[in-house]
Structures are given as C-alpha cells and as structure tokens.
Amino acid sequence: MYRRLIPLLAASLSVAAAADVHIVEEIVAKVNNDIITRGELARTRQEIAAELRQEGLSGPKLQQALQAKSADALRDQIDQLLLVQKAKDLNINVDSEITKRLAAMQVQSKIDDPDKFKDFIREQMGMPFEDFKAQVKNQLLTQRVIGEEISSRVVIPEPEKRKYYDEHKKDFVREEQVFLRQILISTEGKSPDQVAAAERKAKDLVARARKGEKFSDLAATNSDDLETARNGGELPAFKRGQLMKQIEDIVFKQPKGYVTDPIRGQNGFLILKIEERYEKGQATFEEVDNEINEKMMMPQMNAKVRVYLTKLRQDAFLEIKTGYVDSGAAPGKDTSWKDVAQLKPQTVTKQEVAERRRRKRLLWVVPVPGTGGSKKSSTAPQSAAAPPAGGAPVSASAPPAAAPAQQ
Q: What are the CA-CA distances from residue 219 to residues 121, 124, 194, 208, 262 (Å)?
C-alpha cells in the first residue's frame, strides 16, 4: 500500500510546487561578469519618481518626466558597471575615501555605536548598510575613472578661453558678494568647562585648516551644524547687508582662502573660510579663468564620456533581454540575449568513459618510433592555441554562462 502511495504523493508535491513557482528575480542584462536585474531597474525608477516629486511634479507631468528619465535607466546601470570594472583594471582603490565619508556621516549622526549607525543608515537610505557602502564605492570609482581617463585629458587652450571671455563679458559683471564655508562648534546647553573645551577644539580646527587640511573635510567630520556639514560646510552666496556686521567686516575685507579665528556667537564658536569673493564691477579674465574653463569643458566632457562608454561597450561581453533597451548602445554591436537554457552540457556514456581510460593506460606502453622496444611516454601539454577535443578553440575572455533567472 505504502509503495503505491509514494508515487502519488510525489506527483502531488510536484504539481503543488509547479503551481507555487514565481520569479524571484529576473536578469535583464549581462555586462561581462556582472548582471543587472529587473528589481534594480524598478528601484531606480522609484528613486527617480521620488526626486521628481521633490521637485514639485505630480499627475501627468510627473508621469511624462518619469517616462523620459526612466528610458535611460538601463543605460545608466550599464555605464556604471563598465566604469567600475574599468576601475578594477586600472587598480584604482578608494577604500580610504569610503572610510572617510562613512566616518563623516557617523559623526554627523552623533551615533557612536557602529551597529546602531548601520541601523540608522538602513532606515535613512532604505537599504542594508553593505549595499549603501557598495553604492558609495561605485560612485567614487566611476568619478575616479572619468577623472583619470577623460577629464585630465581635456585641455582648453588659453586663447579660446580669452575669446569666450571677450564674447561673454556681460556674464562676468559682478555684484559684491562672498561665498563661504563654515564649521560650528556648539556650546548650547554646555557647562563652562565644556564651553572652554569647545573653544580649544575650535582653535585647533583653525590651526589645522591654516596648515592646509581640507576645510570641507574638517567641516564634514567636526561641525555641529549637520545641515551644512553634509556639504562640507558650504553656504550660499552673501551680499553686503545679509550678514552680521561682526562677520561682514571680516569676510568682505579678507582674500579668497582666508580662514577666520573662532567667532563667538550665541550658540557656539563659528569658523568661516572664504571660498570666493567678488568685487563689484567687471571681473577680470584671471578672476574667472577657472569658471570659464569649467563652462567650456562641460560640453566636451559630456561628448567624450559618451564616446568612452561606447568604446567600453564595444569591448565588453554584453547581452540584453528582449523588451529592454540600452539607450547608449554601441552601433553595430550584437547584444541580443542568448538563452542559457540552450547551452546544454556535453554528456558521455559509461562505455565512452571506460574506453577513454583504457586508451590513456595504453599511452604508457606505446612503442617509440625508431626503437625496438617501448618506454613510458611523457604526455606533452596541450598547446594553448589548440582547440579542445571535438570543439572550436575556447576564448580566454569568454564569460561564464549566467545562472538561470528563475527558481
């Protein structure tokens, strides 16, 4: 009786399992040894929608903008993977930068416990800490590759910059204004001893900044004004009359790059750095040289980055599933999806295996030409250029077959 029930039970379980099958994740693109999934594209679309809502879009306008930006979602994912892979080829390491950035975030959050900080990141970013860390790493790697491979090679000749200046002089007529960064060391709710310690810390930070430490890094890791600390202490531009007279008298007289002594305020000690200062009237070419350089570089940079990414695509193993479009596709490159289910493994019978073993044993007693006897022959290594038995040469760069997308 039990023997009759076992096949019936197995069949019933098989049917039930088939009914419960669902796609856990779907691979939509293969980029060398990496993949892009449908879930990743869905998350990107959600992030784009959230950004557009923050810009005030809703209804049909939101949907229209979302559709336009989502059209490049796969392209952008492929771009990043290719740049991260290139960073590995170039041996670019950003570990210290990641550590510094995460440390700054932890200081800003005022969470000393590492585990609690990871929980904070998960809640704020909506993803596990390790995923967020990987995201930061990828952003830094892509920036470094673009900087080393493209930005450093784009040079705008000075005559062209001067020509641009002469043709756009009216764009460089300035109002008197100053651009600042700040560090705030809070004294709110602190005892006299704690206030004294805060002042010592502020003076130490001023000394470090004046010796050459990057002010934005000092702000990110030390400022108690969390809102500006996230941007390295950056503040908006100020005109005369918009600041306290005590501060205005300093920042509108000192040169670019000047770091103030700690300024005592109601809430703490304020340290300011003058990032830029404009006098009223026509700016000279020398004053706006860097600004012109950036303006003229951007159109070239955008075009050169696209050309560079097209070249990376041409050299890459790239497959995209039907129904998904890479808006940055390399012209003429075949990226059609090859169904991994069709790549069946080679099979042999037990008899064939036994026959191969028998032939291998016979190699040890094959007579050597020109001799009357026999000797054990040393098997020479197969040439790297020679194809494997029964097939075409295998390319060393061919990617491994991807795992099926369904479970």
A: 20, 21, 20, 12, 14
Give the number of residues written for the chain.
407
Segments forming the whole domain that contains residue 245: 176-279
* Residue 267 included in any domain: yes
Cβ atoms < 10 Å from Cβ of 346? 7
Residue-wise pLDDT tens digits, 187-213: 998 999 999 999 999 999 999 999 999
Q: What is the count of structural domains for the chain?
A: 1
Q: What 3-state class would DSSP assign to 56? A: coil
The pTM assigned to this predicted structure is: 0.61
Task: Provide the CATH number for the domain around residue 248.
Answer: 3.10.50.40
Distance, CA of 59 to CA of 288 (rounded, Å): 42
Torsion of CA 42, 43, 49, 50, to 10 degrees: 160
User: Is residue 395 in a domain?
Assistant: no
What are the strands of the beta sheet with 34-37, ordered from one edge?
Answer: 34-37, 27-31, 318-320
Instruction: State the Cα–Cα distance between residues 36 and 81, nearest whole angstrom.
Output: 9
204 falls within a domain: yes
Q: For 9-56, how does the pLDDT look when each residue is reduced to its tens digit (9 = 90+)?
A: 333 334 444 445 455 678 999 999 999 999 999 989 998 998 899 889
